[in-house]
Amino acid sequence: MSDWLAKVRVLLKPTVNDPQGLAVRGGLHSLGFTSVEQVRVGKYLELRLHADDEVAAGRLVDEMGGKLLANPVIETFSFELVPLPPEPGAGG
């Protein structure tokens, strides 16, 4: 088994209205950052997990994303897997 860090990004689909993004854009404009044309607000999660290999870790994260981390009707998700070094004193 290996340790993995999954860096997961969840965003609203482009066709879904993003009121938080509009509010952030408005705030940026009021601060003088008028070159900002669009803001989309999402979620970023980091998950540390154990899996046999990168393929197994990817399957787990993909399943988690589809079942809980993202609402597939209105959101998309993507992830990156980073191998983690073994913890000191861990056998193997």
Output mean pLDDT. 95
Helix-residue proportion: 25-40%
Q: Between the first and last Cα atoms, what is the distance in angstroms? A: 9 Å
In terms of quaternary structure, the protein is single chain
CATH structural class: Alpha Beta
Sheet with the most strands, sense and barrel status: 3 strands, antiparallel
CATH architecture classification name = 2-Layer Sandwich
Low-confidence stretches: none
* CATH homologous group name: Phosphoribosylformylglycinamidine synthase subunit PurS
Number of domains: 1
Counted beta strands: 3
Strand content: 25-35%
Shape: elongated
| Widest sheet: strand ordering | 2-1-3
- Rg is 18 Å
**Class derived from helix and strand content:** alpha+beta
Structure description:
By secondary structure, the chain is an alpha+beta fold. It has a single domain, classed as Mth169, Chain: A (2-Layer Sandwich). Helix content is 30%, strand content 34%. It has helices at 19-30, 54-69, and strands at residues 2-12, 42-51, 75-84. Strands 2-1-3 form a three-stranded antiparallel sheet, with helices on one face. The longest helix is centred in the C-terminal third of the chain and has 16 residues, at 54-69. The mean pLDDT is 95.
Write a brief caption for the model.
This protein is of the alpha+beta class.
Write the layout of secondary structure elements.
Elements: E1 2-12, H1 19-30, E2 42-51, H2 54-69, E3 75-84
Task: List the defining traits of the structure above.
92 residues, alpha+beta, Mth169, Chain: A, 3-stranded antiparallel β-sheet, 30% helix, 34% strand, elongated
